[in-house]
Fold these 4 entries.
Entry 1:
Amino acid sequence: MTFSPELEARFARMLRNYPPGRQKGALIPMLLYAQDETGAVTPELVQEVANRLSVKPVEVEEVIGFYSMLRRKPMGKYHVQVCTNISCLLTGGEELFEHACRKLGIGNREVTPDGQFSLEEVECMGACSWAPAVEVNYDFHHKMTPEKFDQLIDSLAKRQ
Amino acid sequence: MLFNEPHPLEVKVLTRRFEYPNAEPIGIDRFLATRGYEGFRKALGMTPEQIIDEVKKSNLRGRGGAGFPTGMKWSFVPRQSPKPKYIVVNADESEPGTCKDRIILENDPHRLIEGVLIAARAINASRGWIYIRGEYRYLIAVVDKAIEEAYQHGFLGENIQGSGWTFHLSTHSGAGAYECGEESALLNSLEGLRGNPRLKPPFPATSGAFQCPTVLNNVETYSAVPDIILNGGEWYSNLGTPKNGGTRLFCLSGHVNRPGVYELPMGFNLLRLINEVGGGVRGGRKLKAVIPGGSSCPVLKAEECDLPMDHESLAKIGSMLGSGGVVVMDETTDMVKAMFRIMKFYAHESCGWCIPCREGTAWLKKLLGRLDEGLGVSTDIDLANELARNMLGKTFCALGDAAAMPTISFVEKFRGEFEAKLKSAQAQAPVPGAQPLAVL
Ligand SMILES: Cc1cc2nc3c(=O)[nH]c(=O)nc-3n(C[C@H](O)[C@H](O)[C@H](O)COP(=O)(O)O)c2cc1C
Ligand code: FES
């Protein structure tokens, strides 16, 4: 497998960041960065990362289930994550998540039929003072309301 | 970007370079123009003992949650060990209610790098990692850029500022796991393993990253160090209370008029924080309860909140200062629901390594869930309390305690609300076979 030139350059740098013989340290970040390009941690990706880090494929397999951001199946082009943890709960996060289900017509960890959107109820994402918070892929949206949520989704839908 | 207006009562050390509203992280030029890396230059002329002494004098305590004295932690590293020594920054920030490391990384990344350099000098480290939670991808980009600038200006790499000393630093992304904020689980994750905790001792100071002596601190802890070296430990200590030096970032969230992250002296009164800095409870409602330092800390009833925010004062009333996440709950808050949501988090995040935590959080989630739905039975309340008490102190890391302690406090302090849900359920006498209310 090959990745984008930027990612290849990043991987080359990453391998130098761990002590000699301990390049397995790069495993988890490498999987996440690669997943951003492949959409999911596929069997080929497992083999590829295992080769690059000189570890057994099973050593890659065993971390995948542990980290909630790593996934075996692709999510939507826009992965919408709504926090409902305590600070967001107190400021309408749960209602916002229900609203998101209705707006997108999908439930938790589901993908719209056209593959454009997916939805996930997530744990605290470090935006508690600006709650309720939503993260789309890696972009934060603070102090969300159902209206702002609709605008966000509509503008993303137009962008496709 | 800073997300909230500063408040006149703030004492700005960590945030002294911040401007509101500013769109850009502070780059190296502006950093250098505002005494940036001067603390580090000064440290280069000091012995490791002198650096550690100054940090001890400052009474700086860990800002990640446990409040361990930082200078003492650094002094545990065996500097004569032939192994390489490492620095690890905990930027996993996932304690519910906590959003402070983020604003340091975002606004003043060089401050963190400078703090790391001083710590590295104190233990003669050769390399460091900044472990940043995966969801903070845009911050990884900000910090990577700052690291690159620091290399270009000779603050990282070989022969730093002509001292002959070599130190390398890089970011390392997490991938979604609260448990990886726990120091030993973080170290496993850094080695490419599942983030399960390690048996302690040995502590990281003797056997940390890649089994080498390691100093591991929170972002905010390192970020306080440049000004401590620059202005002296005593100066910093005097900003706070006798055993709690300096200032810290309080993340105010929930039912307040002006939620935000505010830098205040240690020992600042909690009620003043809510009413003066935070502009009071939203909608003029009455205060019901406060979680003083992230969801792992036992909850305080409104009448308990007139107290200084320092480690001892909170310990005295059976809670903790924790990570600085102050979650304010007004009179309308459904405490059963709030506790259920908190437990859902711990059950999701328990790494499964220790049975009391894995099973305890799962059962507590079920119990609290059915209490919240109005489907509980009268023994559930005591059972929840007993279950939680049986988890205390029985696990490798503190996640089990972090789940049990709030449960005990919610159940004991707001027992009436748990009982009311039972009563209302009984009054409605559910029709056999009726669908329970949907719980998300
Ligand atoms: C379950 C759990 C999660 C934790 N999460 C974090 C975290 O996200 N950030 C952090 O700095 N410390 C966290 N800690 C505390 C760390 O284990 C450790 O005490 C801290 O990073 C040490 O740095 P300090 O002395 O500067 O506070 C967590 C602890 C536990 C038990
Ligand atoms: S609780 Fe939602 S971002 Fe922290």
Entry 2:
Amino acid sequence: MRENRFHIINAIIPALLIIVFLVFFILTPKQKISLEEKRKMAAVPELSWTSWINGSFAAGSEDYIADHFAFRNELLTFSDFLKNHEGIARKSPEGRFVIIKKRQALKDPLNKKKLSIDSNYIIPLDSAEELVLTNGVFIYDSCSYQFFGGNPVSAGRYARAYNTVVDHLPKNITYYSVLVPSSTEFNLPKAVYRKRANPETKGIADINSRLNAVIKKANVYDYLLAYRTEYLFFKTDHHWTARAAYYAYQAFAEIAGFEALPPGKVPSKIMGRFLGSLYQMTHDPTLKGNPDKLEYFDIPFGGAKAFYMLSPGDSWKSCEIIYKKAQFGIGYGVFLGIDYPIMKIDGPTKNGRKLFILKESYANAFVPFLVPHFEQIFVADVRYFPYKIDKFIADNKINEFLMMNQLVMANSPYTPSKILKLLKTTP
Amino acid sequence: MTAFFCAPAKNKCLLSINTDFCSLVLLKPMVFSSLVFLLVFFPLSLLGNYLFKSLQAKNIVLILFSLIFYSWGEPVWIFLLLGTTLIDFFMAKLIEKHDGSWRSGLFLGISVFFSVGALVFFKYSGFLCDLFNSLTGISIRSHKLDLPIGISFYTFQSVSYILDVYRGQVKAQTHFSKYLLYISLFHQLVAGPIVRYSDIEKELENRNPKWNDISHGVNRFAWGLFKKVFFANSAGVLVAGYLERDLSNLSVVEAVAGIVLFAIQLYYDFSGYSDMAIGMGRILGFHYLENFNFPYVSKSIKEFWTRWHMSLGTFLRDYLFTPIAFNKRHWGQAGTVYALIVTFALSGLWHGASWNFILWGLYFAILIIVEEWFLNRVFKFTGNWLAHCYLIIAIFISYPLFYFVDMEQLKQYYLILFSGKHPFISDAIIPEIQEHIYWLSAALLFLTPAGKNMGDFLKIRLQNSPGLVGLANTMATVAFLWISISLLVAKSFNPFLYFRF
């Protein structure tokens, strides 16, 4: 009889655990967006004959339950704890790779076309089609890195794409190129990155040597090198800091023919600390103990106004150049807010200079510095820009053109293909 | 074998990096170690079962849940399952009706033709087509068909039933619903164990689970889930790190580590699934036979096959080996050898439709012959330790045959081990082992009966404190569930980042 009591308890307590999970799953409000994961959470799957037959209901149900599981964050923290205690922590002076398993990649990344930016202003950066999970993040001394693997072939691909754009645009435009190096050659000891990554100076030179001679090339690398002891790259995020962007701005000013604002005129402000994308990818405890500091510069915008547009035919809607409400995990969102398909900034200087920037997210920290120097700046994200680029440039009487990419992205097959696509896109 | 156990790392690519991702619809069968199953399906099926008192209603609820389970993610093949079940049901009745006449043989033939024919068609048509093309030089276009989930398992169950009816060992079931329940029971439908009709015949008619059953069932299920999620899934990630990369850069020790981890993955994956099935059955009053009994502690291949996937082993013994050996008894020992080779070749083929699996089966047949011939006598002199070493080495040598479907990769792997041209060890392996040393130690410990023996020992020592034993049991079960659920939820953590290469 007594033994039976133990059997009853043993059967009921695990059942209660499942019931608690189930009840909380049903009752707790569902998160639409995960800021940590930079993606939309799965929606309730639609049950229909078709969705049952083609398996989408089954797949959707699993995703929905997984994404909204009760106490998900606590369970994730616990599973991280387990994973981090499977053995003796490695103390290798050589650093280590955290291999990111290709999970259900591309499940539902945030897509600008699907989202109402008005109602969800704080949308994470770097989303949509080209976003795939990386295979590995290198952790060294509590900082995260990703290695450059470009070569002359990939450099040629990027240069050809930019040259083709130049061939299609009016001759009176002034062209610039800014290539942003990664943190590896600035923060890692040579012995560590040399055997794992291709040299970035060579990667930049490979592209520059293949670019059309009319394109002016900013030497960002050397500028950053001069200040390498400063806080140029985030430790837990794959972006650079506003400080690094400031030095890049100085390099750009040199080729664009304006005088960069001296440091005294752009006082820096600290917004707080955050754990960035590479921490979210790895949940590495050493990164967690080394959060990033979010700094931005108080640039004299002089009444400049910023607008964005999502799709052709939409009206321009107001947005902010420095978005101070950027949240935990997407600290980099302080710069321009998100990667808008197209953004327009009406600057304070009526000098007739109209700059078009074709970029990815590295430019976001850089663009605010340009505001005082141009009458108008158009910031187009290469991934989402919905217009035919030559027509857009002609329609808006643009006279300067900057292509700005991080070196790794520039060497990916994706970026050149997206650039070339912009010549064909309608309208 | 189903997609779950057939070279797990090589499963069909459910999702690839593809810019056209919007059009992807993933076909995901429901598995026990999924959150949908744990949070929704299984609790509802239990609720449905306990809501009704009559056995008939319970059976109907179970059938409904089993059909939903089967149709989850792959609904089309449910008609195949229902069709072959219907044919087998009527054929069994006809066999019984015409017992002793030539007609019973005819009906047996018809039943086996449809059951095994469906299996051959879906699982082996591509392989047979390729074989035919290579033998004749003709180029017949083969279509790789999607394998209906669980077809390898439920075909064997229906064949065992039909043969048992034909042999007069069981009576033909008169209610279609009960026969359908036997075939479609979701506990064992997709990945075994292969349950004999005679094992659960009485429970289809009458079952009354006691708290003792439910409690043991819950424990067993939680332990199985833990084995699958904590050990097998983690091992799978590590296996891929060694064996899914460019093999030419692999050192000998890394190659061995990869296959050892694969052995761990395979055992915990399959035995964990069997534990879950046995546990679920027990909760509902079914008593399925054990499917694994610490196979890696065997002292011979012959013993290994009595401890590994026991339901398959006994099926092959009773329905293949024994009849063939009996048929060829006039050949003497050659008849037994012939039966052994045929049985193991077909066993290999059952695991997968490619040559590597046939080789895998034949490899075991040859080893058993060698064991019987002289090796067992050697081990009598040397003691058990050498027999254990032999078994472990023999098993580890066999697993590449199971893992690498691509024969070129297989060759490359064996060259790493035996050519002497590859570096013996790499710098990375020791720190990698260190990083997982606690997990690895636990995984190796529970491959042996040591953990079970320890538990039994404590139970005896604490027999005067049943409360303590009960508490420990409950705590362990809750811990297994909690850890498993955490790890399953963690799989859904899916951050996006920039494209890198």
Entry 3:
Amino acid sequence: MLVLTRRPEEGLVFTVPGSGERIVVTVLGVDGDKVKIGIAAPRAVTVLRQELVEAVHNQNLAAARHGAVAGNVAPDVLRGLLVAAVPPDGPGSGA
Amino acid sequence: MTEREAPPVLAFSEGLIGCPDWQHFSLDRSPALAPLSLLVSADQPGVSLPAVSPWLVKHDYSPQLGEADRAALGSADDGDLEWLAILNIQADPLLVTANLLGPVVFNRRTGAARQVILSQSGYSAAHSVGAAPAQDETEVTYARADATA
């Protein structure tokens, strides 16, 4: 891992391969154990908190690991759970 | 196109989150599985992910698709998109959870698919299906986590 020291208002610049576009990460301030970071990136770049990525990754692995169990759970049992989670007026139509 | 109809292969150009090599899935919607669907990996033998409409788990689910994610799906209209929540199914049905934080969304016309993270939603990656909803939601207290400039 590359380790760099930065002061407030200093930043780092990343270049997107192919397009040459730049991602600029700037330290905006430090308050105790919290660091405020500003990110300027092309719209096509998705920026995510690491802990959320790890949470979804872990759930993907767990779902795959337990995938075989799905065949052993009766569909009507699952259907009962899902019906219980949704009020009588039914699910939304989606985004 | 009805919900039962889907492209033969869903193509995740970046793979699933944390699993970049899992890029191609078929969608098994056998009536015997209903209300489940199965995302069956074409890249990783033995990997199949049970999934369900997130609205069957949480009736007021309200995902917002970011600009980068929509572009990756071919700038599809909402009517062309279908959402699925991956289920983590345990032997005990009361321990079944749904990933509402990182749903799968795909373009029904083209098969372009993406697993997105709804950063600012407060939804959980392990939303309990078998217990009272909304008790396991992860509180998200930040201003802008998936910001694009």
Entry 4:
Amino acid sequence: MVQVPTGSGPDQVSAAPRSARRAPIPRVGRERPTGSNFELYSWYFFRVSGLLLILLAVTHVVIMHVVNTVDEINYDFVVDRWNSPFWRGFDWLMLILALLHGLNGARIAVDDYVRPRGWRVFAHSVLWSAAIIFLIIGSIAIVTFNPEAVVTAGR
Amino acid sequence: MASNYRGYRPPQGMVSWALHRLAGLGVLVFLLLHIVDIFAVGYGPEAFNDLLFIYRHPIFRAGEVILVAGLYYHALNGIRIILVDFWSKGWKYERQMFYAVVALFLLSFIPTAILMLRPLF
């Protein structure tokens, strides 16, 4: 995995000329994928969506669990919050990025652990289906929410 | 005679990787559950408020603290991964960055956990 020597870096050998002394940079972390465009885009997507999600998800947690607690959150809280197009957009972007980032991570885990071909196809099908289904129900919840329609339908 | 062997010590890169995957999959499981419960909001106040008993349950509240721990660690170690990938000197400092991740995690998570559990105090 990681083979970085401590203390004694590659610069310790000093007899050779400078250009020859420069050791190749050891590979640390997951290698940038080559060969398949999909894997390369997935690699970049993890990093870009990850940075955005740090902002989105940490803000979300701080608002829901630090500024407020679960004791204060109820239906009226959601009505109030989703009155604002900003928070609806915020939540929708977070939903899409978090779901794709998370399920893509699960896909990498499946590739690591599920070896038999049939099970692999099955696991990938489950993940892609989950992505579509949860994107749809999550989007319906956020985009179509209309408290007035709910109240009249209940009467 | 005492042995110098102090047990198997996994390298930092392996620990950070295993925690990153565990935290990521844990947060994903919660996310799927959370999408389902938020769907109930469309069915009106009674349906949604009735469902919230889950979130108020002590076991679930403890779970939420663990969820935040996973999220914070995954976020901080994610920054470390990005630095290793895109910063030309990142590979050299990946171990030091792991210790920074642990330190920043404790600095951010402990106050958050105290605030989350403040109704208990």
